[in-house]
Every structure is written in C-alpha cells, then in structure tokens.
Amino acid sequence: MEKICAEMTIAQILKLHPDAQKILMRHGMYCIGCSIGESESLGDAAEMHQVSIDDLLRDLNKEQAA
Fold this sequence. Notes:
Layout: H1 10-16, H2 20-26, H3 42-48, H4 53-65
C-alpha cells in the first residue's frame, strides 16, 4: 500500500484508502466531502483545523499497515 504523506490531497487519500475517512473524522477533520479537499493537501488541512500532522499521519499509516 502507498504510504500517506502530508503533500497528498484528502481526495487522493480517500481514493487510495477509503477507510481513512473514519481516522480523519476522529481527528476532527470533517472535510471529507468538501470541494477544497480536491486540491488542498493533508498538511494544509491539518494546519487549518489545528490538528497535529504528525499524529494524523501516524494514525493514517498505522491503519493502512494493519
């Protein structure tokens, strides 16, 4: 599986790993269907929502490895 990184858009992440939705929501990122998610990077979205990108990436990649 492709490792999720901060430069990926939310849309790319969800296309590769649909189950990532639950992790994003757990971190308070409810922008799953937001049109900005098509072009905004995960890192930018995390900063906008005041979410630790390191914690988010750890959880997203841990879930994908399981």
